[in-house]
Design brief:
Blueprint (H helix, E strand, L loop, with lengths): L2 E16 L3 E8 L3 E7 L20 E7 L3 E9 L8 H17 L7 H13 L4 H18 L8 E2 L4 E2 L5 E5 L3 E5 L7 E2 H9 L5 H18 L6 H5 L11
Parallel strand pairs: 3-5
Antiparallel strand pairs: 1-2, 1-4, 2-3, 4-5, 6-7, 8-9, 8-10
Length: 242
């Protein structure tokens, strides 16, 4: 029996064509997680739903019928104006969308993550360094919500707190492990502690955090990277990339 869901806060993460005039939307909803719904007639000459509302980065209130893996959208209303993002801020927002589509499981609610996503979209910093750090914090929250979180303040091998002056590796299956020389792709204890505390580190720490989080995410993505990572490759400084 189909379940009717009403008045649910949501964002469109992805859209793909379906049959001649419809589309399948990947919605990120507050209380139902990621759901796929058919928006019938969305691509028709006279669409049933407002085409301008059902787009990425527009806060929505949606209703649908749950019918197994693919539901049917029954109502969608914009909640406020769409976000006016451009440049690296727009690219970063679309990066978040792709990351959520790839990692979240269907019908697995994460209200804390939804609220963090909604806040981040409206507060994406203009500063490249501040933007990069906010993305790292969101990535860490995402992994934690999925059950893949790492305790960045604790050396699991030494069974001791992370030393801000030490060097470490963050391994998906083992957590943070101290190293005793300047190996490639290590990270400072200071940067790890800054991430855990939500305090932006220096430029070197930001680069180390980006590299570490990229490696952790890639592991949980099954080794298949994101399209957004390719888009965000540019001559810009490393901190200016997602």
């Amino acid at each position: 029996m189909a379940e009717r869901v009403e008045r649910q806060p949501a964002y469109v993460l992805h859209e793909r064509a379906y049959r001649e005039t419809s589309a399948i939307l990947e919605l990120f909803t507050r209380d139902h997680g990621c759901v796929a719904v058919v928006a019938r007639g969305l691509r028709a000459a006279k669409p049933r739903f407002s085409r301008g509302s059902l787009r990425a980065l527009q806060p929505l209130e949606c209703a649908w019928l749950n019918q197994g893996d693919l539901g049917q959208l029954t109502a969608a209303e914009a909640c406020g104006l769409p976000l006016a993002l451009s440049g690296i801020r727009l690219q970063s927002a679309l990066y978040l969308n792709e990351l959520l589509v790839r990692l979240l499981h269907r019908h697995d609610p994460h209200p804390l993550l939804f609220d963090a996503y909604a806040r981040l979209l409206v507060q994406l910093p203009e500063s490249a360094d501040a933007l990069g750090f906010q993305l790292r914090c969101f990535e860490a929250l995402l992994l934690s919500e999925l059950g893949y979180g790492i305790e960045f303040t604790f050396d699991s091998a030494a069974q001791a707190p992370v030393d801000p002056c030490g060097r470490y590796r963050a391994l998906p299956e083992h957590g943070v492990i101290g190293v005793h020389d300047l190996e490639v792709d290590t990270i400072s204890g200071a940067a790890l502690l800054a991430l855990q505390a939500g305090q932006q580190p220096d430029a070197v720490g930001l680069r180390e955090l980006r590299r570490m989080m990229r490696a952790l995410l890639l592991h949980h993505l099954g080794g298949r990277g994101l399209n957004a990572w390719r888009v965000l490759r540019s001559p810009a400084p490393p901190a200016d990339r997602a």
